Amino acid sequence: MFKEEKVGFIGLGIMGKPMAKNLIKAGYDMVVYDIAEEPVKELVKLGATAANSSREVAEQCNGLLFTMLPNSPHVKAVLLGDDGVLTGARAGTIVIDTSSIAPLASQEVYHAAKEKGVHYLDAPVSGGEPKAVDGTLAIMVGGDEDVFNQVEDILLIVGGSAVYCGESGSGNTTKLANQIIVALNIAAVSEAFVLAQKAGVDPEKVFNAIKGGLAGSTVMNAKVPLALEGNFKPGFRIELHIKDLLNAIDTAHEVGVPVPLTAGVMEIMQALKVDGKSKDDHGGIIQYYEKLAGVQVRK
Ligand code: NAD
Known about the structure:
This protein is of the alpha/beta class. The protein contains 14 helices and nine strands. 54% of the residues lie in helices and 13% in strands. The strands form two sheets. A six-stranded parallel sheet has the order 3-2-1-4-5-6, sandwiched between helices. A three-stranded mixed sheet has the order 7-8-9. Nicotinamide-adenine-dinucleotide (NAD) binds next to helix 4, strand 7 and helix 7.
């Protein structure tokens, strides 16, 4: 479906660029836009058409358009702004926003889009850059189920799974739950490995001994080998995880849920930000514990 028309893609950063590349590889004719020139040039070399604004992307693609942007204000600007998608999109266009944003912002955009006859799904992803490159992201979707059914196949080009979670905003609520679990898991792994290191046990041995047991996790498998090399190149930047936890804390308080552990990890991330590490990968949380304990967890 949608192969006879141009598919739009706005936001070609760490995640959006490999996702758009996978759509090109699958045979889709793409029209792309980003405020940064480099990723646009890279995709044009692969056959995509460059647009000069979000509005132009919407005008040139007839049926389907993806966005992959940092946070709620960026999504609102790209969708609802003066030169935004809704000023150029024809009625019936489906916008799939794969950014991780506040569920309330998704709902606001959903209603604004609906007034113009445009369909809007919130479809945030999990899995990071490696899974964006492989096309195996986990996708969680909110919005109208009949619209999800129309795009499920194309979602499965960029993702390994796509689960319909409920009405508009449900995808991003699911993503907030995901981000709480990932952040707390990284913090727990960091605390444990700093303890092992300072107590004199080789951290590589600890990793190999426990990864197959109940403490094992996708987070541990992804982040410990990088920490052992002192590699905190992003991946997923601490500043983006702060954004997600702020959205999680706000949403939790709005619905009356205290989130004490999330608040604690948020403060750890704030300390790392003050320490100049906000652009490190979130696996760099371990550096907070290393500084407290005066050791480094390395091979
Ligand atoms: P990024 O900063 O690398 O990419 C964002 C892109 O959006 C940039 O290229 C930027 O130039 C572009 N952009 C910003 N404002 C724009 C505008 N007004 N018009 C057009 N383009 C604009 O971020 P990322 O790591 O790709 O993350 C994007 C989203 O995906 C975030 O919500 C993030 O939380 C989520 N996410 C990231 C990861 C990860 O591992 N990096 C994993 C899962 C989800």
